[in-house]
Each structure stands twice: as C-alpha cells, then as structure tokens.
Amino acid sequence: MAKVLAVLYPDPVNGYPPKYARDSIPKITHYPDGSTVPDPEGIDFTPGELLGSVSGELGLRKYLESHGHQLVVTSDKEGPNSVFEKELPTADVVISQPFWPAYLTADLIAKAKNLKLAITAGIGSDHVDLNAANEHNITVAEVTYSNSISVAESDVMQVLALVRNFIPAHEIVTEGGWNIADAASRSYDLEGMTVGVVAAGRIGRAVLERLKPFDVKLIYTQRHQLPEDVEKQLGATFVPDVKDLAKVVDVAVLCAPLHAQTYHMFDDDLIATMKRGAYIVNDSRGKLVDRDAIVRALKSGHLAGYSGDVWYPQPAPADHPWRTMPNQAMIPHMSGTSLSAQARYAAGTREILEDFFENKPIRPAYLIAKGGQLAGVGAKSYTVKKGEETPGSGEKE
Ligand code: NDP
C-alpha cells in the first residue's frame, strides 16, 4: 500500500462543485506532433469537471483506494505545520500542479524518506529540486503536452490584450465610462510588429503558428535551431541569442522552462536593450524575469506592457509588486489549468500512477528525472550541473 499526497489548489470560494458554463468539452485524441493524449486504463471523472482543486482530487480517489492505496489531499502547503510538510515524511508519491506548487526543496526531499515519485500534474517541474531528487533516486514525471496548447492560446490572447489595450478599455466600460480617447491612446495594431518567441518548444511553436496569420514578423531563439522546413512552415527566423531577439522585438513571448540558464534572463540590462514601448508576455515561469526590473521598466515607460500568469512565490502575496505595477495584464497562474487541460493532465497523472504501481515503464515523454539523473524530456529541457542548480524550488527571488 502506498501513500499518495496530492497538493491541490483550494476549491472555488462559492463551494464545490461549481456551476459549469458548458456541458461538454471537445474530445482531443492527439497532440500536434502526432503523439497520443493520456491513455490510462480508466478515468473516474467526466471531462470538463473541475479536477485541480481539493475536492476534484484529480479524479484519483476511487482508483487509488480500490487498489488499497491511501490518498491525502490538501491545499495547506506552506511551513512546517502545514499538512503537506507533516504528511511528506511518510508519503510514497507526491502530486502537485505548478499553479499551486508544493515546493520540493532539498531540505524537504531529505526528510521525505519514503518518496519515490513526484508527479507534476501539468508541465514544468522546476518546483522540485532536481539535483536533490536525483541524489535520492526519486523519479520526477510530468504530463508533457497536456496543457501546452492551453498556454499557447493564453499567450496569444495576452499579446493582443496588451497591444490593443483591451483590459483598460474594458475597465472603462465596467466603470460606466465612455472615453474613447483614453481607451485608444495606448491601443495599436499587432499587424507589422516583430514578435520574438524565446524557446520554440511545444508552447513556443504553437504560439508562432497561431501568430503567423496576423502578418507579423516572427523570430525565435533557443539553443538548437529548428529544421529549415519547420522554420519555413512557421515563417519564423532563428536568432542565436536572446540578446539579438530582445533588441529588435516589439513583443517578446517567453516560453522557456526555468533552469539555471534561463533564470532572470530578462533583467535590467537586457530590458534596457529593448525598444521603448516593447511588451513582454510570460506564461512560462516568473523567475525567467527579474521581478523588480519589470516593475522599474513599466514605471519608467520603457516597457509598454507586461502580461503573464506565472509568479514567484505562488500563491503571490497580497503585496506582490506585480499586482499594482502599471500597464500590466496579470492573472493568477491559470493558463494551463483550463477545464480542458485538467481533463488531460488528470488522465495523464492516472496513467503515470498506473505504470508506477504496475512496474511498467512511464512514457519517456513524461519523464524528467529517473535513476539519479535527468531522463526523457527532462534531459532535453533542464540542466542540473553542480553549482548551476535551478533556483526554481529555492526561496531566492
Ligand atoms: P518544451 O520542453 O516543449 O519546450 C521547451 C523549449 O525550451 C525547448 O524548445 C528548448 O529548446 C527551450 N529551451 C530550453 N533551455 C533554453 C535556453 N536556455 N534558452 C532558450 N531556450 C531554451 O516545453 P513546453 O513548451 O511544453 O513548456 C515550456 C514551459 O512552459 C514549461 O517548462 C513550463 O515552465 C511552462 N508552462 C507553463 C504553464 C502555465 O500554465 N502557465 C503550463 C505549461 C507549461 P532548446 O533545447 O533548443 O534550447
């Protein structure tokens, strides 16, 4: 019997279950690269239900208990008296979502003597200290591709929201106003602008594909250049360094995972090289940018806007400066937890658990670390060189 500890975000303030806006969600069988969506032996939820909050339990209770396992679900995750930290030393499996991350720091991993598997229900395992996980031979897995398109859609929405000045214009209406000049004086067309995507992985490529019909100039950077035919299809030009991208873009869309090489990529120095009036959209990880450099650039007017759903820490404290900085379109971390995405990553979590308990190999596409080293997609996306540890799971802002 195993103890599975799931750290999930709190239920809706008006209670669970919520009233749903739609009766169903479209059925998706394959991802754009042809790989299949999660395929567990069964699911005990209706796709479209709220699964990521405490009462949703990722739809796992029936399956786990019928196999004799124990499921502990909590949203209480901060500090030594939290349910998470109290239950962790006896947990075999920890599940958490990046939206409400259970930060598995080296200290906590050292105390988690039984821990064998850490699942990210979603994508992005930077909340786990991957070096410590490797030292303790803990398998880390995530549900690759489950919400990549969800995030790409949100990225495109936020690019348009910033450039068109949508949110301030909407607020004018809800406040009873009608000042067209106020609404229009920060509103531009995206057409003709240069948009640069940092990291053309699953999300970044989907952003490029979705922006192409807007008749923008598309550029991208990452460590490996895409094949020529893919670049042609995307209509995107490779630039070898983020510095080359920063100085020419009107809009930068950040789609890279957080690791030592991407930590604070957009700092005062890099932002200073951007055009006055550039925009940044970041749904990837808060620490890809220097928090205070963003605030400074928005206040000075050097940046025209910043939008994103990723913060550090999460949940963001009430006095987090990004809540009140000017010209921002911040939202809570939610791009990747649409009800559509939840159905996929809950099924993917179940698939990973089934494989783990039945001693079957976990899909390589889901593996981040295994057997003391980075594995599967993790070996491509992350770096854990000694002395270059990802600061993601640590306290450093
Ligand atoms: P992928 O693994 O498909 O893509 C990651 C890309 O990052 C790769 O193309 C890689 O290319 C590039 N990359 C890695 N290191 C660097 C670097 N140093 N500089 C530039 N590019 C780099 O992941 P996804 O697209 O699916 O997801 C990306 C990230 O998005 C996740 O790690 C997560 O942090 C975030 N995310 C956010 C969500 C949300 O709800 N807001 C939900 C899901 C994901 P190369 O190796 O050539 O550099």
From TrEMBL:
<comment type="similarity">
    <text>Belongs to the D-isomer specific 2-hydroxyacid dehydrogenase family. FDH subfamily.</text>
</comment>
<feature type="domain" description="D-isomer specific 2-hydroxyacid dehydrogenase NAD-binding">
    <location>
        <begin position="156"/>
        <end position="335"/>
    </location>
</feature>
<feature type="binding site">
    <location>
        <begin position="257"/>
        <end position="261"/>
    </location>
    <ligand>
        <name>NAD(+)</name>
    </ligand>
</feature>
<feature type="domain" description="D-isomer specific 2-hydroxyacid dehydrogenase catalytic">
    <location>
        <begin position="62"/>
        <end position="362"/>
    </location>
</feature>
<keyword id="KW-0560">Oxidoreductase</keyword>
<feature type="binding site">
    <location>
        <begin position="202"/>
        <end position="203"/>
    </location>
    <ligand>
        <name>NAD(+)</name>
    </ligand>
</feature>
<keyword id="KW-0963">Cytoplasm</keyword>
<feature type="site" description="Important for catalytic activity">
    <location>
        <position position="333"/>
    </location>
</feature>
<keyword id="KW-0520">NAD</keyword>
<feature type="binding site">
    <location>
        <position position="381"/>
    </location>
    <ligand>
        <name>NAD(+)</name>
    </ligand>
</feature>
<dbReference type="InterPro" id="IPR036291">
    <property type="entry name" value="NAD(P)-bd_dom_sf"/>
</dbReference>
<dbReference type="InterPro" id="IPR029753">
    <property type="entry name" value="D-isomer_DH_CS"/>
</dbReference>
<comment type="subunit">
    <text>Homodimer.</text>
</comment>
<feature type="site" description="Important for catalytic activity">
    <location>
        <position position="285"/>
    </location>
</feature>
<comment type="function">
    <text>Catalyzes the NAD(+)-dependent oxidation of formate to carbon dioxide. Formate oxidation is the final step in the methanol oxidation pathway in methylotrophic microorganisms. Has a role in the detoxification of exogenous formate in non-methylotrophic organisms.</text>
</comment>
<feature type="binding site">
    <location>
        <position position="148"/>
    </location>
    <ligand>
        <name>NAD(+)</name>
    </ligand>
</feature>
<dbReference type="Pfam" id="PF00389">
    <property type="entry name" value="2-Hacid_dh"/>
</dbReference>
<dbReference type="Pfam" id="PF02826">
    <property type="entry name" value="2-Hacid_dh_C"/>
</dbReference>
<feature type="binding site">
    <location>
        <position position="309"/>
    </location>
    <ligand>
        <name>NAD(+)</name>
    </ligand>
</feature>
<protein>
    <recommendedName>
        <fullName>Formate dehydrogenase</fullName>
        <ecNumber>1.17.1.9</ecNumber>
    </recommendedName>
</protein>
<feature type="binding site">
    <location>
        <begin position="333"/>
        <end position="336"/>
    </location>
    <ligand>
        <name>NAD(+)</name>
    </ligand>
</feature>
<dbReference type="InterPro" id="IPR006140">
    <property type="entry name" value="D-isomer_DH_NAD-bd"/>
</dbReference>
<dbReference type="InterPro" id="IPR006139">
    <property type="entry name" value="D-isomer_2_OHA_DH_cat_dom"/>
</dbReference>
<feature type="binding site">
    <location>
        <position position="147"/>
    </location>
    <ligand>
        <name>substrate</name>
    </ligand>
</feature>
<dbReference type="InterPro" id="IPR033689">
    <property type="entry name" value="FDH_NAD-dep"/>
</dbReference>
<feature type="binding site">
    <location>
        <position position="123"/>
    </location>
    <ligand>
        <name>substrate</name>
    </ligand>
</feature>
